[in-house]
Structures are given as structure tokens and as C-alpha cells.
Amino acid sequence: MSSPTGVQGITEADIANYLANTPGFFERHAELLSSIQLSSPHGTRAVSLQERQMDLLREKHKGLEQKIMEMIRHGQENVAIADRLHRYTRALMLTVDAADLPEVVVRELKQQFLIPQAGIRVWGLPSAPADREFAREVSADAKSFASSLTLPYCGANVGFEAAGWLDDASTVASLAMIPLRHGATTDAFGLLVLGSPDATRFAADMGTEFLMRIGEIASAGLSRLIRVE
User: Fold this and answer.
1) Could you report the average pLDDT of every consecutive run of 10 residues in the chain (229 residues)?
2) For residue 65, which phi and psi values (nearest 5 degrees)?
3) 0.85 cut: is pTM over it?
């Protein structure tokens, strides 16, 4: 059976485009709104166009509510992180004896950010306190590795020398190693290492901006130590 003249070749897209560009159509044919029946997304029964539109609006509203709740949750998490970073920074600033700073860095990171294990080494000190763990000998390879890091290293514990600075390296599955330096172009004067038994805690694909901030604050605080005459 042939199509009526003028109808042949008309597609659903043509109809949709016509209705979208003819806002007065349903005003002139208001009876269509009450007669159109659509399938309900919540069952097999038919619903009116108005009911279907209300369902769509409710779904959209629910989606917006979820996004708002997610934004609030992220905001609360960011505030909590900022508070921990503030306490970490404050502890460094309140440390009177510069020789105590490396231990304060390690202690505060473990306490504030719930890091299972942490260690630090600082080299090139004018007068190294031999009895302090942070001043123990570091190989030339480890120093070169620290200076080569433009960003903190995050990944698996594959036998790095720095892993040996932790209390129990055998239980550490992932590491974060943060170079300590003054400026991106200078050699590192130390290395901060964080360890976790969770292989995903310091994953290779994680963002490192926050770790960089931790390293910058530690480096600034430790400048008092490396300038001791």
C-alpha cells in the first residue's frame, strides 16, 4: 500500500524536529496530551504523557540530590584533610630543636594521616648528629634516585633501599617516596618514605599533588636543620 502524498519519506526524526521547532502545536491540539499513552518505566501499564513527564522529573531530581550529597561528602573530606595538614604543619612550626624535626615529620604523618609506617633520611648536614636515625648513611644510588624524582614515587615495594628505613619492610606492599628539596631544579637533600601493607594505598596511578605538598612543607621545616653551622 502506497503512502499518502506528502507523507512518504517522513521519519521519526523529522516528526521530532517538527514538534521541537513548533512550540504552539500542542497548544492548538491540547487534546492530544491527554490521549497519548506511553509505557511506564516501572511496569507494563500505560501512563499518560503528563505522568511519564513527572516520572522523568522525579528521576532527574533524584539524580541531582545524589550529586549534591556527593559534593557535600567530598567537601567534608577536603575539610578533614585540610585540618590534618594544618596540624602537621603546626607541629613542625612549634618544634624548637631543629634536630627533632625529622622525627616530628614522621610521627605527625603517621598520626594525622593514619600511615602505618614512615621513615626519613637527610644528608649533607653541616653537623650530622650520629645518634639520630634520620642521619644514618645513605648510598649514592639512593641519593641519586631521590634527586631524579620530579614527582613523588608511588607503587609497589620492589626492594628499594628506602623501604629498609621502615620498621618492618617485609610487611609493606606499597610505597610512596617523596624527595626533599628546595626548588624543583635543585638536588634532593633527603627522602621521605611512606609504607602500607595495602597494595592499593600508594598505587602507581594515584594523584601525587597532596604528597608534593607534604614534601614541600617538610622541606621548608627541615631548612632549619640543614643550615645549622
Assistant:
1) 55 83 75 64 60 74 82 80 92 93 95 95 80 91 95 93 94 96 85 96 91 94 74
2) -60, -40
3) no
